[in-house]
Design a protein that fits this description.
Blueprint (H helix, E strand, L loop, with lengths): L5 E4 L3 H10 L6 E4 L4 H4 L7 E2 L3 H7 L2 E4 L4 H12 L8 E4 L5 H13 L3 E4 L2 E2 L2 H6 L2 E5 L3 H11 L3 E5 L3 H31 L4 H10 L5 H12 L9 H17 L5 H15 L10 H6 L12 E3 L4 H7 L6 E4 L2 E6 L4 E13 L6 E4 L3 E4 L4 E16 L1
Parallel strand pairs: 1-2, 1-4, 2-3, 4-5, 5-6, 8-9
Antiparallel strand pairs: 7-8, 10-15, 11-16, 12-16, 13-14, 13-15, 13-16
Helix pairs in contact: 3-4, 5-8, 8-11, 11-12
Bound molecules: NADP nicotinamide-adenine-dinucleotide phosphate (NAP).
NADP nicotinamide-adenine-dinucleotide phosphate binds next to helix 1, helix 4 and helix 11.
InterPro entries: 6-PGluconate_DH-like_C_sf, 6PGD_dom2, 6PGDH_NADP-bd, HIBADH-like_NADP-bd, HIBADH-related_NP60_sf, NAD(P)-bd_dom_sf, RmlC-like_jellyroll, RmlC_Cupin_sf
Pfam families: Cupin_3 (PF05899), NAD_binding_11 (PF14833), NAD_binding_2 (PF03446)
Protein name: DUF861 domain-containing protein
């Protein structure tokens, strides 16, 4: 019997590694990626690089969908469905999507004559390359028997039968990825800040029932603050968290801990860790960003007495004028100013806009970032420091 011809759509972090593993076997592999450059190196390993999803699907009997989310998967399939038939072909949904999205995709593929297999996986780049992924097979027993041996190249295949349950299993497991890295980050931050030797902590932890191998896997990254070459990005972890949160709420399961994790992940994204390894969450736990702290207050004294102005020496402070305009400003140092003319609105993130005008003494604290909107020409005396 000829080996089954396989297509793989989406050669991102996971898809590329799955392709590398499959290319060690003897199944012809057709790959497609929106950014072609990310799939080109697979040609030297034996893959055929296709110009469109339709070309790859047409060539294959089994198609791996390893795309970011349900939306990306639908877009890629929509590009193909006009141009090639899905009839008789098996589509493996490897990317993580929700149980409802799984059902919807199953319906769409089945309507077009294809077979749908939910195949979420646990494990990342390295496990895919080594063939030690854990694959959750959500489709009929008949399909399971047909594909079991082939899929075993990638790791251990667990028969789940119901595609929706396979998707839910994956969300349940990914919830543990989130809570274990945040839990570890909390304890490890405490260890470092109490100046306890990390190895002492790890030696005790490794001997205990609390230990989880992820801790040792991520430890070198935490110690070196190196979150580059992600195995699994924070952006995708947030996507999975949202899917999980929706599911928990639908099932009336307490979601408060996950909501707190969401805040931490969103903070990490704000700090630019979106495309970094998810262990970068440690940075937010260890050193909450000043952005999360209450921004310092602007003090406004509406009618300062003449004696106060004299005492401060306001008349001798330099003058500053500016026409109607708007601009962002950051105060490295405290600045006091006395408004002689005009009006402006000061916008500070998460605060009510503040109007300042003629006759007011205004103190901008050091560290403040704000936006000035001058609504009528401003003239002011000012003093830095
Ligand atoms: N990484 C892991 O360890 C891991 C483990 C288990 C499950 N997963 C799941 O597997 C899926 C892929 O993860 P990944 O880590 O490989 O992500 P990734 O590196 O970000 O790759 C995403 C892939 O989707 C493609 N894509 C995104 N939007 C697209 C669109 N609108 N049209 C066409 N292609 C689009 C990207 O193409 P471009 O290259 O052109 O951007 C890329 O090939 C996700 O659902 C993830 O949650 C990942």
């Amino acid at each position: 019997m000829n080996p089954l011809r396989i297509a793989l759509l989406g050669t991102g972090l996971l898809g590329h590694s799955i392709a590398e593993r499959l290319l060690l076997g003897n199944n012809p592999l057709y790959v497609y990626n929106r950014s072609r450059s990310k799939a080109e190196d697979l040609v030297s390993l034996g893959a055929t690089l296709c110009n469109s999803p339709a070309e790859a699907i047409k060539a294959a009997e089994g198609i791996f969908l390893v795309l970011t989310d349900a939306k990306a998967t639908a877009e890629v399939l929509a590009l193909a469905e006009e141009k090639t038939s899905f009839r008789g072909k098996t589509f493996f949904q490897v990317g993580t999507i929700s149980p409802d999205e799984t059902l919807e995709l199953d319906k769409q593929i089945t309507q077009r004559g294809g077979y749908f297999v939910a195949l979420p996986v646990l494990g990342s780049k390295n496990e895919a390359k080594k063939g030690t992924l854990l694959l959750m097979f959500g489709a009929s027993e008949e399909h399971y028997h047909k594909w079991h041996d082939f899929l075993s190249q990638l790791g251990q295949v667990f028969f789940v039968a119901d595609p929706k349950k396979a998707a839910a299993l994956k969300l349940a497991l990914n919830q543990l990825i989130i809570s274990s890295i945040i839990g570890f980050s909390l304890s490890f931050s405490l260890i470092l800040k109490e100046e306890i030797h990390p190895e002492l902590f790890m030696s005790i932890l490794r001997k205990s029932a609390l230990y989880c191998s992820t801790f040792d896997k991520k430890l070198p990254r935490l110690l070196k603050k190196d979150y580059s070459s992600a195995n699994f990005t924070l952006e995708l972890l947030l996507k999975d968290l949202r899917l999980c949160l929706e599911e928990l709420e639908k099932l009336s399961i307490e979601s408060a801990p996950l909501k707190t994790s969401k805040i931490i992940i969103e903070q990490a994204l704000k700090r630019g860790y979106g495309d970094k390894d998810y262990s970068a969450l440690f940075e937010v736990v260890f050193a909450p960003h000043p952005m999360n702290e209450k921004s310092p207050e602007i003090i406004v004294e509406k009618n300062p007495s003449p004696s106060k102005l004299t005492e401060l020496g306001v008349a001798d402070w330099p003058l500053w004028e500016k026409d109607v305009s708007s601009f962002d400003w950051h105060y490295e140092e405290k600045e006091s100013c006395y408004i002689l003319e005009g009006e402006a609105i000061i916008y500070v993130e998460n605060k009510e806009p503040l109007q300042i005008s003629k006759g007011q003494l205004v103190i901008f604290p050091a560290g403040l970032s704000c936006r000035w909107e001058i609504t009528s020409k401003i003239k002011k005396h000012y003093r830095i420091g």
